[in-house]
Amino acid sequence: xxxxxxxxxxxxxxxxxxxxxxxxxxxxxxxxxxxxxxxxxxxxxxxxx
Length: 49
Hints:
2 helices, mainly alpha
């Protein structure tokens, strides 16, 4: 599996997160925390599968 395919797949999974659809947070730290949460969910789903 190529690196590009893995990265594109990860971005596709992250784009499904409703909180990441629009960045309406006041603080950049809040947006960063939402991104980390979404990445954690994607990683856990891949591990559990």
